[in-house]
Specification:
Blueprint (H helix, E strand, L loop, with lengths): L5 H7 L20 H10 L2 H5 L2 H15 L3 E3 L6 H5 L4 E4 L3 E4 L5 H5 L6 H4 L1 H13 L5 E7 L1 H10 L7 H9 L1 H25 L3 E6 L7 H22 L5 E5 L6 H8 L3 E3 L6 H7 L5 E6 L1 H6 L1 H14 L5 E5 L9 H20 L1
Parallel strand pairs: 1-4, 4-5, 5-6, 6-7, 7-8, 8-9
Antiparallel strand pairs: 2-3
The structure holds coproporphyrinogen III.
Length: 351
Amino acid sequence: MSETSGIFLDTLAGQRSASTPIWLMRQAGRYLPEYRRVRAEAGSFLDLCYNPDLATEVTLQPIRRFGFDAAILFSDILVVPHGLGQEVAFREGEGPVLERLDGERSIDQLSLDRMPDRLAPVYQAVGQIRSALSRETALIGFAGSPWTVATYMVEGGGSKDFGRVKALAFSEPALFERLIDILEQATVRHLGAQIDAGAQAVQLFDSWAGVLPPDAFETWVTGPTQRIVSQLKREHPTVPVIGFPRQAGLLYPDYLTGTNVDGISLDSTVPLPWAASELQSRAVVQGNLDSALLFAGGDAMLQAASRIREAFRSGPHIFNLGHGVMQHTPPDNVARLVDHLRALDAGEAAA
Ligand code: CP3
């Protein structure tokens, strides 16, 4: 076992470690009162993302409170379209609102050249966070996958049926390919810059991977992800990549084979025995407690957490949720979950 890199990176490298590493998607955020205070001070959500001192502070808050094994940069997947020149705003209670891309002209106006300047504060935050963390706590950088980011860019925000973006992909594949290609390049640069600034692993969030039929999944999810992973590996061969093709269901194994990610984050619909035999034999698995069980707390949460840990005990596993922490989750439930998992580790060490 390595003495310097901590259990998160050891596990992600496929090594057995004495205990199960833990972090949670959206571990920084509105469920924490200390986050809400900083958020109010920052002004808008994007102002918070682009303020290195405040972004550092909110990244560290859940580490101080819960002692997670990894911190994840506080930012958002939509800083990439913003960096490319698209208008992006976060409205209270409404979520993200983007100036909708409509056709060739607006796609050709996106510019990779202005991204490094616009996103410089993000990379500055990465450096500050890395300096503030102890050696045992890893720093994860992230980006959205081209497909998921494109859904927001084309729909102009969140969507229920993804009608516009699917119609574009299905009826004008050459034009959609141009958008995906820009996003691939932007993602490689954005993740590369985070790695250069101090990120030790990166995660690709593909929150809407599960809405595509299998052939389109292959074209717009697996293909772009594979190209991003291979470019990153060329430039940063030792930095592990975690993929999160949320709700990909039976396509999870294809994603794993087709992309070469080192780790795979599982949503909470994935059956544990199936994941243990079909996925964990080929990659490090991460997940997959239902976020609503964390919100609910109590014995239901603790029992589900034990079952997940037990199912993945024979191979490398990083404990996480199946999606992000919900806004109204009591912070005490998070503390209980962490205590429970640490107690299970301690019990085994003693046995
Ligand atoms: O995990 C972390 O702690 C790091 C920070 C992080 C945020 N967003 C902060 C955030 C990460 C990794 C993300 C990823 C992200 N952003 C995804 C992929 C994961 C997922 O949730 O599916 C997506 C789809 C987005 C886009 C996005 N950002 C949406 C749809 C929203 C609005 C929904 C909401 O919860 O309000 C955001 C805003 C956002 N990103 C918040 C946070 C803490 C809440 C904004 C606020 O504080 O007002």
